[in-house]
Amino acid sequence: MFRRIFRKEYAKVVFSSEYIYGLASIGKYETFDIMRFKKIRDQLVADKLIKRKKILRPEPCTTDDLRLVHTEKYIKQIQDPQYAARLLRLTNNSLFDNSVLEFYKAVTGGTLMASAYTLKWNIPVFNLGGGYHHAHADRAEGFCLVNDTAVAIEKIRSLGKGRKFMIIDLDYHQGNGNLLYFKDDKEVYTFSMHADTWVEIEREYNKDILLPSGCSDEHYLSILEEELNSACWEFKPDMVFFIAGSDTYEKDTLGDMKISREGMLKRNLFVYRKVRAKNIPLVIEAGGGYGPDSWEVYYDFIAHSLRHKN
Ligand SMILES: [Zn+2]
Fold this sequence. Notes:
This protein has twelve helices and seven strands. By secondary structure, the protein is of the alpha/beta class. The protein has a single domain, classed as Arginase, Chain A (3-Layer(aba) Sandwich). A seven-stranded parallel β-sheet has the order 1-2-7-6-3-4-5, with helices on both faces. Helix 2 runs parallel beside helix 12 and helix 11 packs across helix 12. The longest helix is centred in the middle third of the chain and has 23 residues. The radius of gyration is 18 Å and the shape is globular. The relative contact order is 0.15. The site of zinc ion has 7 residues, from loops.
């Protein structure tokens, strides 16, 4: 007789080699570093925080999934490899193989899988990608072709698995795609704290907080604590999507914030613990993050969540 010891899993990770494969054949991508997610996966495995076989591997989403949010005309447009490549300002892409769209379908499949898993088991799930919050129903914006969060919300609704959702978006940039898509939807709360405003809309279930440039750890965290307050939680979402963009990190090559590595972890854990304390299913999406060091931030967050209950 022997007893098998199962270590409790506090969080799950979703990743697929198609996240890399999708764009790997294309020569030059300047701001769109998809390799950071492989780096995170490799480091989590090297540090023995997760076994490869425990990583959830998603199937790409289907074109019907895209139809839940995106218009037929736009879906036709992005099926053209040249059109899709232009949206990402890519050159040297194939005329015949739409790897750009394949990439977005793979990662959106990951957000769908993460959502289904957290709703079933109520374990937080990290997608190593996703959070394409600038995409609109009928057009791309800011390197976002497919709005994976909106697709996941519509899919959950279509399956009758959830009704009310909250999107907490702490990427450096405003979640304008989500704000516009859900502007008349009383069952989605959009919360975005950002350094630049892309669109201004007044709606009941929205908080848009514009941050001062060069924000420090203390300043940022005090604003977050004040704004993500108990009044927000009266909304009582069935599920939360957290877009944990790391472009607010001081080493980010695009953003101008001064948040330290420790400050970024504090920020992420503040949201994580708030949601978990309320026992709400949670999906975390990577959002933006640029330059060679941006992967560290999401890595720290996932590593902590795999080791600790909260
Ligand atoms: Zn961003």
